[in-house]
Amino acid sequence: MRAEVAAARQGAVVLRGGTNGFTISRRHWVTVRGFTVAHTRSYGIWVLNSSFVTISGNHVSYAGRRAKGLARSGIYLDGTRDSLVVDNVAGHNSYAGIQLAGGSTP
User: Fold this and answer.
1) What is the distance between the alpha carbons of residues 89 and 27, in angstroms, rounded to a whole number?
2) Cβ neighbours of residue 17 closer than 8 Å, sequence gap 6 or more
3) Which of 43, 48, 73, 79 is deepest in the core (most CB within 10 A)?
4) What is the domain range of residue 67?
């Protein structure tokens, strides 16, 4: 089964605050497209132990906090394989804009 979460118009849906804008864990064939995610306490978009995920056309900013142990990336893939991160804007985050970790592969 394939799932797609998309804004009707790019940037029309704004997720502001909260822990993460999106958390995708142990899922396959998921697309997140066209969202604005800002001012999250942790990662803007967090993908964990998943595969065939597409993160496309999102604007992710101000993820995490500029304090010891609280810095986070805007888009973070951990243990995720065969996935695509394309045409996103990820800036002004407390750590990296986009980070691949834990053996993640494009």
Assistant:
1) 23
2) 39, 40, 41
3) 43
4) 3-101
Torsion from C-alpha of 22, 49, 30, 97, nearest 10 degrees? 50
pTM listed for this prediction: 0.91
Tell me the pLDDT tens digit for each residue of 20-31: 999 999 999 999
Residue 47 β-bridge partners: 24, 77
Residue 6: pLDDT over 80: no
Tokens at 104, concatenated: 């993640």
Confirm if 83 and 91 have CB atoms less than 8 A apart: no
- Quote the number of domains for the chain: 1
In a domain, 106, yes or no: no
5 SS3 class: strand
- Measured CA to CA, the distance from residue 84 to residue 86 in angstroms comes to 6
